[in-house]
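Customer escalation, tier 2.

The customer says the design service returned an amino acid string that "doesn't look like it belongs to this structure." They asked us to rerun it and document both sides in this ticket. The original structure tokens are below, unchanged.
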């Protein structure tokens, strides 16, 4: 599920290959409209599709001249980002 509250985009539930496709288009317009914080505090499960989704949103936001920050990433996402060596380009809030 995706919920937009001003510049904050909150995701909840699993962020996996089964859900990333529908979330991709739902979030695309938000990340290109202005600076946005993607809140992952409600995400219950991630896989590599979560990384692909977030990286596509980062690219789209940057192409539009905006900034995207990922807030409260699950530990599993941080581990995957490190494993795939994309942690340096994924804007994770600490």
């Amino acid at each position: 599920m995706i919920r937009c509250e001003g510049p904050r985009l909150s995701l909840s539930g699993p962020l996996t290959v089964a859900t990333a496709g529908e979330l991709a288009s739902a979030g695309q317009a938000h990340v290109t409209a202005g600076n946005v914080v993607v809140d992952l505090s409600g995400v219950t499960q991630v896989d590599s599709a979560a990384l692909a989704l977030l990286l596509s949103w980062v690219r789209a936001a940057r192409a539009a001249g905006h900034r995207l920050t990922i807030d409260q990433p699950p530990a599993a996402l941080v581990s995957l980002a490190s494993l795939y060596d994309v942690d340096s380009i994924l804007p994770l809030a600490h």
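Tier 2 assessment: The sequence is consistent with the input. Residues 32 and 63 are 8 Å apart (CA to CA). The longest strand covers residues 36-46. Sent an explanation to the customer and offered a walkthrough call.
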